[in-house]
Amino acid sequence: MIALAIPRSLESVTAVWATVRSGAAFVPVDPTYPADRIAFMLDDSAARIGITVAAHRDALPDEVDWLVLDEIDLTDGPVAPIDDADRPTVLRPDHPAYLIYTSGSTGRPKGVAVTHRGLASLAREERDRLQVTAAARVSHLASPSFDASIFEQMMALCAAAALVVVPPHVYGGDELAAVLRAQRVSHAFITPTALASLDPDSVPELHTLLVAGEALPPELVARWAVSRQVIDAYGPTEATIMTSLGDPLTVGEPVTIGTPSRGFRALVLDGRLQPAPVGVAGELYVAGPGLARGYHDRPALTAARFVPDPTGTGERMYRTGDLVRWTADHRLDYVGRTDFQVKIRGFRVELGEIDAALTAHPQVVFAHTLGHTAPSGQAVPVSYLRLAPDADVTAAEVKTFVAQHLPPHMVPAVITVLDDIPFTPAGKLDRAALPAPDFTAPAGDYRAPGTDLEKLVTDLFAEHLGLDRVGVDDDFFDLGGTSLLATRLLPALGERLGRRVPIASIFTHPTPAELAAHLSSGESAGSGIDKAFRVLVPLRPGTGTALFCIHPAAGLAWPYSTLAHRLDDDRPVYGLQLPALSGGPRHDTITALARHYVREIRRVQPHGPYHLLGWSLGGVVAHAVAVELRRAGEIVDTLALLDSHLVVGASPAVGTRDMLRDLGLPVDDGEPSFEHAAAVLDEAFGGGTGLTAAHLERLHAGSTDTARAARRHEPDTFDGDALFFTAARSETPVPAVAAWHNVIAGEIHQYRLDCDHHEMVSARAVETIIAVLSARLTESDAALRRWGRIEVHAAGRNGDRRN
Description:
- By secondary structure, the protein is an alpha/beta fold.
- Among the domains are: 89 residues, GMP Synthetase, Chain A, domain 3 (2-Layer Sandwich); 76 residues, Non-ribosomal Peptide Synthetase Peptidyl Carrier Protein, Chain A; 256 residues, 3-Layer(aba) Sandwich (Rossmann fold).
- Helices cover 31% and strands 19% of the residues.
- The chain has 24 helices and 31 strands.
- A seven-stranded mixed beta sheet has the order 25-27-26-28-29-30-31, sandwiched between helices.
- β20 and β21 form a beta hairpin.
- The N and C termini lie far apart (75 Å).
């Protein structure tokens, strides 16, 4: 093993090719790295011979025998090509070509052993797919410590093209543009971060860009692909740099990482190692000739990441840790890293999705979002932007823009505008160099309280969020607040006011100004709580066609709140709850209950198209509601069933334990009394639910009636399609979906979720439900806009639309 401790230069390129031709493997070592990291890499790799230059020799350990290039005369050396007769052993394709160190999650770097076979496969792919000719001029921008430098060298030298070595102190911006322009570079392998630092007009001869290393924002494609060839490439170090390559990108078209490279296979798998459906994100596994031998001297880590093909072929695959999804035309869409996911307010958030929304703004050229702990102790997203040179937009305006496209929990709590993007030696974003987010409102955005009530609310916000001050227009959730924190804030506010303040108030009135105005409006706490007990309860406001979610067996629609807040902002969502909760009538048949719900639904939306969803027993009721709406001649565009079992003959009675579990509160074995269950709710939600033992007793009676009715129910056929979501961890020998084919005339589209039955509306599970449901609702909305007014004909097919 030969250590190469040379900055990017002609010498570093020469040393790489000389070492490989000799039959030895090399380990690149950045001489500017901290001494302890250099020492670790040299010791771990067992390198005993090294090549460097005089400027860095003194900083390198003496345990290695260093050849200092600029202190020896090589002019009289042999010029004949090296062959196997000169090498200690015959060079084989599976021998290592280099050992390259990548960051380890534990802080200990891990060495990846890459073979000559992988490099040969890469060379063929570069030659055939990129069509580089001898007339090309290829930039060498990557640090020799990163495998992108090997890609650049092979792209040029394997095609007999010119390799333009960028000076080692240049990473991006005007300095890089000057080099590319002066050297008439035609081809570049570059990261999106470095590309965002360049002005397309400053590099007129640069006509082919291969972009890799990070997710490529569509905004960069819009800037660069107008008159240039921009290709998105993907590949981990563990699979010899490139495993997939896209076609040249077109402005306005989706950005994908294309199809697998020569000889590679790609699998997109969910958490249970099952293939993810088209459009649903899963982890990428790759197999092919470029797979590395593994991690040097790390057998356990190698076994964890280089795994047998789960489909049973026995072939080795590399588990990338990258989230991707298949598109309808069988291309790979890069979503982000599994380790770039964070939990925000209980939701699992892919930070790359926030970046994509930010760069959709026409004046934002770069965005990067991190999970950060706010002063309140809660995790929030914070974003860093670089704006276009002539931009006149503020961070607050960008925040307003992105709030129109993302659910509230994904809107960045703080947006910081950068003058310059900090780079690592690899040309990627240096996250450690980003400034700490400032959670205090800018002076121009701060508005002081104007009334005693506003002052009280802002003081309590600041106290619970751990901030010095809060303005009346500051959003509780933007500042790091969560529903859990709200369960402490609202009771504290109620204690100061001498009356109960419903927890739901903070979701509909999240700023001190809005909350104070709401509390001053004369609406009593009791009336606010009573609204939450009505049969039809609004879970989310909006102006579009509504989604109606029908309660599970326990009778409450509150569990759907997570799902409701993940849908697009203009989608109203209503929950339907057992009438018994508010003292209404009890029904002894599912059909009678469905007709009651149809009346409630048509009170807020007289005509279709209707969108219905039901979890568990709620799916049986939702199906009956769909049948009743069709009998009335209405259109039902969506019927979504969440792990609903049509055959319920053996279903146990619903108890207080089930009610608590539906609200996300697991309890110990046994059946709590109504008083105990109410106390558990008070403790968990700070007394803000308003549910008393009497409410729970009424709910229990209504739930028991509904369970009995379900066992006797003989459903009629619904003449439309349905979406069916299966809880894979709770699957029975006879799948629940099987019985539904007898009472649904159209197609049933089934989706398996990695959860059990009681987790169907958890933050984790709703991600897949939202992806499928949003696509269905968007399709329905598009049809509605296309056809305009809907005329309903009782004799027509479900979904007929006429002008």
